[in-house]
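step: validate -> pass
step: tokenize input -> pass
step: predict -> running
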Amino acid sequence: MVEWITSQGLTDYDTAVDFMEDRANAIARGDASEAIWLVEHPPLYTAGTSANPRDLTDPDRFPVYDSKRGGQYTYHGPGQRVAYVMLDVGKRGHDVRAFVQQLEDWVIATLAEFNVTGEKRDGRVGVWVVRDDKPLTLTGAKPEDKIAAIGIRLRKWVSFHGISINVEPQLDHFDGIVPCGITEHGVTSLVDLGLPVGMDDVDVALRKCFDQVFGA
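step: predict -> pass
step: emit ->
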């Protein structure tokens, strides 16, 4: 069974990392069950293992944390649902690529609960929304905004870190970084898309769709 944990208020980032690492180690030893931990953080930037220092365009705006997860720079803050996934990938197939695809599918299924079409893009980690309500780009293509980020780390085949979905964050907080190193696309949120969705609604959808994608 997977334990679901929801923290109220804003969770300190270092505290979250310590908890995840302890739980992942306990799962690897067989001393604890798998867990999904739903949190919000105060405004901060994290640098993944592939982060380019040039993509931190406003280093003094918010605290910056070096993260051992994969990926580049990302933002976390109030109004964004972060779901930390501490799962035994070894027991779930020993396939990291397939696991990341399952995380993407989980996000896409969750967005579909609110009639939002999330999509994957080759070469761009995360989940994207095509903006039919915005003007075409200079190349004549429809613009696309990122609505969810994904970054994980494995230790002894147990995952930690996870996904983040923009519910109602302050989107200008992303301006201090080049999110995931991508300059030609923007960011959006469920509320920015015109949906009166709250964090509790997203949590219900996450849990329902997790069971659909991963099994209970």
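step: describe -> The first strand starts at residue 2 and ends at 6.
step: cleanup -> pass
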